[in-house]
Amino acid sequence: xxxxxxxxxxxxxxxxxxxxxxxxxxxxxxxxxxxxxxxxxxxxxxxxxxxxxxxxxxxxxxxxxxxxxxxxxxxx
Length: 76
Known about the structure:
It comes from Agrilactobacillus composti DSM 18527 = JCM 14202. By secondary structure, the chain is an alpha+beta fold. About 10% of the residues lie in helices and about 20% in strands.
């Protein structure tokens, strides 16, 4: 986890115009690019480029899905 993202920097990774899709969960930034559930840039009303720490706890899978994702950094 060498890269540290601010919320403003994280917001740039929104999957639009070919950009990668990143989200933060509990201070860790994950890459969602290529993850099927996020193919449309909208997963149950959530969007890449955001801190979804609270939202993931409301999902049916909770944090179990995080082990399938690549860690790209941390959120400042």
